[in-house]
Amino acid sequence: MKWSALEQLDERGLVLLDRMDELSEEDPLYAFALDELLCRSTGRGAPAVCHIWRHPRAFIMGLRDSRLPGAGTARDLLETAGWATAVRNSGGAAVPLDKGVVNLSLILPKSDALDFHFHDNFEQMYELIRLALQGTGRQVDKGEIKGAYCPGEFDLSIGGYKFCGIAQRRQAHAVIIQAFIVAAGSGAERARLVRSFYDLASPGADAVDFPVVTDASTASLEELAGLGSGASQAFAAAVKQVIKEAQKGLPAAGSLILPSAEQVREMAETLHNRYAI
Questions:
Q1: Domain count of the chain?
Q2: CA torsion angle for 177, 167, 194, 160 (degrees, to 10)?
């Protein structure tokens, strides 16, 4: 098995940061803030990183979502229902996060500060996910799925149902490619939640400013790929195996100097203030 994206990394290798089971952090922007700080470090010569993480219950909006006329009202109702909410600094639109959603961040150095070939980075994430699911025998397609939430040309799907979306955050010397993977549970239920957000947030907005979300657009890997109720852990394990085989072992996580929890929380607060509704 070979992941061609790894051939583009230098001798620093790719360090795996597995935070799948670190579910006590309530702030939904903690992981995004950690990515932001790690990306700065990677840009200064620290190792590239594959960050795997989950959040127990959060609703993450895109920048365009946060500017919808009823975004504040929709946010308040979500929080009343027990959803933590935030606006992310990467591209894309609204996505719900829970224990059945696995998030992948590839934090990679840019070979050139003027490198704007973001499609190459998206292809790297696609290839990683495709190889991780190769053992299921399912074909992973890419291309926008009509009716899916957080739509884009790099929607990943199986049998016409979206299970993954990809976004990015670019800094001067490094880039973060972020993917949410609907691994376990019901894709249709998550689609209904996102549609209810837009039903509240979009009145008075132009139709081009928000997606029209339908139930029959999204499904989980549990539903599509036969991974069972443990689909989240099974998918994460498959990702780690792809990286391990491609690199003939993983660089020690200890080689990665992590920012302190206080530094991450300070960055998260900055992001909350900068991207507030």
A1: 1
A2: -100
